[in-house]
Amino acid sequence: MIKQLRARLGAVLAAVIVAVGMTALMPTAPASAQAGGCSYSSGFTVPYLGVYIPRQGICVHTDGWGLNGQNFFGYANIEACNYKIQLRKYDSAGTLKWTSTGPMHYGCSYGLGLGSYTIASTTFYNGGKACAALFQGGAFTDQACIWTSK
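The chain above was modelled as a monomer; its predicted structure follows.
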């Protein structure tokens, strides 16, 4: 009886060891993540030109894993007039390495989530930044950034 019990216990233990070993060898999917942030500023008048820039916000967001970005996008918030959004990637030294600019939106828009601009996938720089910049009337007004790392 004890011999049979030891034999069964040995077989079960061997099966567990094989199962654990096989699980350790199985490839794992990379962890996915989301990151995002916004920058807000109050309205202001451009000195010497007298042009009023309304209060605004610009937001950036990406999905993905590690340095692989999916659905990297920026969008305007609050108020925006005659604006476009530019996606930007910076390296770890803070040097602007890449830009992609969305279409111009003419007229003024008010509300949340205005005029987004998206690229499907990209690779970020380790220790760098992913940003969305807002341009109104052809002038840079603000940008929101997130840090990127492995």
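Helices lie at 2-25.
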